[in-house]
Amino acid sequence: MTDEDLPTHLCRLGLTRREAQTYTALLAVRADDGAPPAGNRGCDREAPGCSGPDEDRAREEDLAQLRRLGLVTVSEADGGRHVPVEPTIALEFLAHSRAAELREAQQAAVNAYTGYRRTVSPQPTENLVEVVTGASIIERIETIEAAAESEVLRFDSPPYHTHGTANPIQIEKLRQGVEYRVVYSRSAVQNAEYYAVNIKPCIAAGEQARILPTVPVKLTIFDGRLAIVSMSFVEAEVNDSLLLVRPSSLLSALTGLFEASWRTALPMHLSGRVPSALTPIHRRIVELLATGVTDDTIAELLGVSRRTLSRHLEQLNSRAGSVTRFQMALHAARNGWI
User: Which of 42, 186, 259, 332 has its Cα between 20 and 30 A from that of 285?
Assistant: First the structure.
């Protein structure tokens, strides 16, 4: 951050532009600069913006507000001039105050929209489910995901409104500490391109991933307060739309459905008990074996030939003392690799 950025950041915390500039100017004054005392506004008479009585009064008001906020104090030891103080507590107070204001503004906007919806359709259940169609679908999905704060639950299966491209929003949310639990359908994992650009990077970023042969519905639940239900392949052919489900018994049922499916799904990534001697490609093979996809699909996902995969499987079977694919998966499960 440059010095020029500081007033802008302080304004975001609730200071006026003048107060932010006054505080920044005080930070730039050195102890040996001979800065004027508090009664002289803490700035040089020749400095820009300090040239008249009105400016003097305005600067005094700014300094008084900065004192009230706990950002500056009057130092008698320095000739009674204004000096900055350690700002952590004051800035935390400003941040909490601004957050409270934003929540109040958010609620006001929601209440206003609720009033609008009641004038359009007075049915009390109207706001529980919203239908989104057309070009606004992707924008709504991205906006909702970008606002996630703690946990995202997802059933993942094609088709995709985003055409199966990468998901940089999820990668950023994972970096911020948002927990993702995703149950993939086998058809999603078998899509080599989608696996490479979406699934694999998200797992590497910290996503908890499991797999089922099929998932009961295309679903994403954000922070337990909003769900997106998308169309299946058959439905999408005739109706490209999605449903937004807000807190209700329906949302509770969808959450319960996810949790039940999560408990029965198979993990797609290894635990911390996998032998460190396993090579990276052997680790990936064990992960993919647990998903139940075919050997041909594993070879395609790894970008190797079927013959090369067979050689790696022989090496893994030799290490585990197994003969078949099933025995290898059983060995991995019994030893807590997955």
Answer: 259
